[in-house]
Specification:
With about 300 residues, the chain is α/β, with parallel strands linked by helices. It is built from 13 helices and five strands.
């Protein structure tokens, strides 16, 4: 696949938060979206993707004292740009990138993200794209100067979070994976354990992470940063500073004060202990040991 020789438009290099599904990226996205230099796709534009100029309403967050209204229903909020990407890139859901997808991305998606940035009146674009489809390969080609912040989370709390989503209530359903065959030792362990739903989620999270890491390897390592979700919750100011240092973004006192005023939910990574019974914990322990041994011997 040929890489784009273009830039990110008139604005500076974009920043993309990536990770597996349920990796805890929402809090990182929410905090970084408060940065005075970063534009993002609001809920209004997600609902009406044909009208990127609606991002003009995001400018309300530049006004003093507006943070207290952030959670009001009809106030624009930063959202994952799935609907926007699907509207402006017809093959967005394709798991593989080809020249057709890349050409359409250059012609439609790149200028549309630039319109979002300009409507918002900010210098850079910030986006969050987690889970499937993994789009790092496409984004790295469309935006050669982009930064990628990989939000990571331990397997157990990630699986616990997945099992609280309605999709994973279908016990024993293991969807086909589009990139490479699921390792036979994973399938054997799954069958021997009785096809439990916690292993459905664990196998798919592991496969998702493997593909994400493969695609991240296509982007310059100096333009990437790995940030554990637990670290973001424990030290939001410190982790925001790390991201901003990577992307050459200033961090001033007003921005830090706004971050400190946000209430973060503590202890989310410990909730899995109450969610799983002893048999489920044994299954996840065994699966994690299996994947660790597979990685060490690869």
């Amino acid at each position: 696949m040929a890489r784009s020789s273009g830039s990110s438009g008139a604005g500076g290099a974009p920043i993309f938060l990536v990770g597996t599904g349920r990796c805890g990226s929402t809090i990182a996205y929410s905090l970084l979206a408060m940065h005075p230099d970063l534009a993002w796709i609001p809920s209004w534009v997600s609902a009406l993707p044909r009208i990127p100029a609606l991002a003009f309403a995001n400018r309300v967050w530049s006004l003093p004292g507006t943070d207290r209204f952030r959670e009001i229903r009809f106030v624009p909020k930063p959202v994952e740009p799935i609907m926007f990407f699907r509207h402006h890139l017809r093959n967005y859901t394709a798991e593989h990138v080809d020249d057709t997808v890349l050409s359409e991305g250059r012609a439609r998606l790149v200028p549309m993200l630039e319109r979002i940035r300009r409507s918002h009146g900010r210098a850079r674009f910030l986006g969050k794209l987690v889970g499937r489809p993994v789009k790092v390969e496409l984004l790295a080609a469309l935006f050669p100067d982009a930064y990628f912040v990989h939000v990571t989370r331990d397997l157990r709390p990630t699986v616990s979070s997945f099992l609280k989503v309605d999709f994973y209530e279908r016990t024993g359903l293991l969807d086909p994976w589009p990139w490479s065959p699921i390792p036979p030792e994973h399938l054997e362990f799954f069958e021997q354990a009785g096809r439990p739903q916690e292993l459905v989620a664990a196998i798919q999270v592991t496969a998702n992470l493997a593909e994400l890491n493969r695609q991240l390897a296509l982007a310059p390592p100096e333009r990437q940063l790995e940030v554990p979700y637990a670290a973001f919750v424990a030290d939001p100011i410190g982790q925001v500073r790390r991201v901003c240092a990577l992307a050459d973004l200033p961090v001033d006192g007003r921005y830090e004060r706004r971050l400190l005023a946000r209430r973060l939910v503590q202890g989310a990574d410990q909730k899995w202990m109450k969610h799983f019974d002893a048999a489920q914990i044994r299954n996840l322990d065994g699966f994690e040991a299996l994947t660790t041994n597979s990685t060490n011997t690869a």
